[in-house]
Design brief:
The structure is a homotrimer of 322-residue chains. Chain A is an alpha/beta fold and 322 residues long. Helix content of chain A is 40%, strand content 14%. In chain A, helix 5 packs across helix 12 (293-319).
Chain lengths: 322, 322, 322
């Protein structure tokens, strides 16, 4: 795989948070903070992406992630092409590459790509022109880098530190790209106390998340946690893998106000959305004073603006070397 | 329900024309007139919505109304998200609210919402953040406020008065949100002579449209009328409710040149579109010298610009109180 | 049919390259060259279409052509409406015209229309308002004028002349709008040596392409050619008309490196896309040093910008006559 950064350390692609050093990661978070506008404030509008064309290629549907990338790009002045590809029975490989080559020939600068299968983002960064960038908006169960970034941005805003923080992730860790990307970002920033909470069948393989502790009872996993991060339940998978229906899952793993009292008094409640209320989380917790779930969405746009702007800056510098 | 206006009388939401005073309504029409550009002139382009994000949530398909809101918002400089939701089997209530909360967290300022069922717009204005506005683009059979506004703007442009005007509405009044919103606007502006023309089965309940006269023969209803407003026929409903097929409906209620001669010599012919030519209206009348049907479409964009701009001005004033 | 040019020679519509004089055609190519930016350069951004509304009406799906027109219009500052009409069972004639009239009333200035049947573009230019223009983005097997323009722009960039050039078009000529438009443009610019290569069943009728030579063996047709233009194979049609499956077609008519050696040493390889690699063209040729296929895509955006800008200039001049 080609590097995600150029020789000067500028961001060229973003498909995984693995290998992204603390400085690079922090620079993105700082830039995102400058772009963030809380609901009620007018959104940031800039020209950082003026003249830049962004193509959103979503092979897996996602209204919210696409809207987030779309707004992020347009608020910085980009032209955005939204290509809805999930409905077509895609023929991968060559044909997919021809789509990319065609859009490159139309002066597309940045591809944002989401796919339920593994491998496409890496394949693309090995094949795109040297002046073209690739951002993953979700790849199989493997990676969702902008979600990882928005999660740590949200935590940083409240906790102001990562070392010494106790973070519990609860749900289907095994199949979760969010858990993988967020835990990578946390590790890079210095969090060492990570707890994974799931039914036995949904814990990841032993050789993954090596530094984390594993729990099959939520009460044990979230005890004293500073951050409780709930994952979205894929209902079919839950029944199949863990023999738990909605009600049983909520009974055993759902985050309720009572359980939340086991966490630290100032614990944050997080969720990548969309939520299944009454399945993995109760509504009073989702909308309660500890919840930062809507802040995550707000930070999501800011993080995507930051990533797009960092990449555009690298592309410009590449065109006009000193 | 929360008020549609703030304490200073500024427009905050628009989901019904009921309760909107004559001054407020006239202010929107005046603003719309300033934005209107006749076909052949370049469209008005402004920055009144610069930095504003508008989300079009259409739970009921409507190519023309969506295009009208989309262009209105973009010509004033807004970023527009078009969300196509009608295909998904929506789960209302909580899930719908989570969509709204998510888009709010992305700094969406104005929601434009269309739904074939009743209640959603009111539900939303009770739940959105204080800095967020809701515009109905059509709600069940109940309300279609921007259609009502464009209708009275069109009438005003030609008749220059509302008092003393005879207005006939012809078609399925019972199920028509257009008839409800337009008649509310007319009443507010001083029109007292309203005639409803429909097969018995499609006249509204007795406790609605109390001030109007009812007719089951079109010849009686449009006699001497200054405005003849035809409604679009839903064919299935016509067969079911009134036992009339297309040809029979046209024979009994279709607006032909012969029938139009019964109206006032300078009568306007109106239709909210899309038309069923040869069912509720003949083509020679639809395209004839009395028809202002395309002017209605032209005024529709202007009215939507005016509503969006008025709401954006209120939101800005709210952020920067004197 | 109304003329495509106004009395001063300004471009009003573009639905066929037939009848477009060499000067007019060359003017478009020159303008396109000014707009062209090679991949890696920032795209041209201008205000030539500021205040202009373009509606893309695609009755036949085409991701790439639509993206090309969409970007071309937006990079010149237009507002673009993308209407996806192919899925709906359209009722043509009146209903289609009402869609056009509605969009005209919303101050749409330019319609870009693609249809798998013949007649719509001509029908439209006979019916639109005098301040509205129509561009064909592909009409049945008859016409695809911007493809013809991008093809000759690509050839001009490499060959710098048209007279004396040997051009071979290979594939289903009979049903190809690309072959028709490109050969018209070539004839206008002075190319007289045109060769058509296809299975007997897919050569055009005798009264078409009168000046061209016809070949049923690719080896004969491309011998000494300066340009080899491959057409996309519609697989179903190939089996039906010429009794050739993919493998047999490739064996008999596919462009391979060995066959390409029969052409002139500096021959260009072209393809309108999307390609069926391994059917009408081998991958090594498609991606090889003679291929200008991606340049065609790049030129496509430039040509569409040029056509849009030329039409917008005519519309403006019409509004403000000297």
């Amino acid at each position: 795989m080609r590097s995600q950064q150029d020789s000067a350390g500028g961001l060229r692609h973003l498909i995984t948070l693995g290998g992204l050093a603390r400085d690079a990661l922090t620079a993105i978070l700082d830039r995102a903070e400058a772009y963030r506008r809380f609901p009620g404030q007018p959104a940031y509008e800039g020209r950082e992406l003026a003249g830049v064309t962004v193509a959103n290629l979503f092979y897996e549907p996602s209204t919210r992630t696409r809207a987030s990338f779309d707004l992020a790009a347009r608020r910085l002045g980009a032209h955005v092409l939204n290509m809805d590809l999930q409905s077509s029975s895609r023929a991968k490989g060559e044909t997919m590459l021809d789509t990319i080559y065609t859009l490159e020939a139309m002066n597309t600068d940045i591809f944002v790509i989401r796919d339920s299968e593994a491998g496409l983002p890496e394949f693309l960064i090995d094949h795109v022109d040297p002046h073209v960038s690739v951002i993953s908006a979700g790849e199989a169960h493997l990676s969702h880098p902008t979600q990882g970034l928005l999660d740590v941005l949200t935590i940083r805003a409240h906790k102001r530190r990562f070392a010494g923080l106790k973070v519990a992730i609860v749900g289907d860790i095994k199949h979760s790209r969010v858990a993988r990307s967020t835990s990578q970002a946390l590790a890079t920033l210095g969090t060492t106390d990570l707890r994974l909470v799931a039914p036995e069948a949904l814990l990841p393989a032993e050789n993954e998340f090596r530094a984390a502790q594993r729990f099959t009872r939520i009460e044990d996993g979230i005890a004293g946690a500073d951050v409780v991060m709930m994952l979205r339940i894929q209902k079919e998978r839950m029944v199949q893998s863990a023999s738990l229906d909605d009600a049983a899952y909520f009974r055993e793993f759902g985050l309720t106000a009572a359980r939340l009292r086991l966490a630290a008094p100032s614990a944050l409640v997080m969720h990548p959305g969309p939520m299944n209320r009454g399945v993995e989380i109760s509504s009073d917790v989702a909308d309660g004073p500890r919840s930062v779930i809507r802040e995550q969405v707000n930070n999501g746009v800011a993080v995507r603006m930051a990533v797009l702007a960092a990449i555009a800056a690298t592309l410009t510098r590449q065109r006009h070397p000193l």
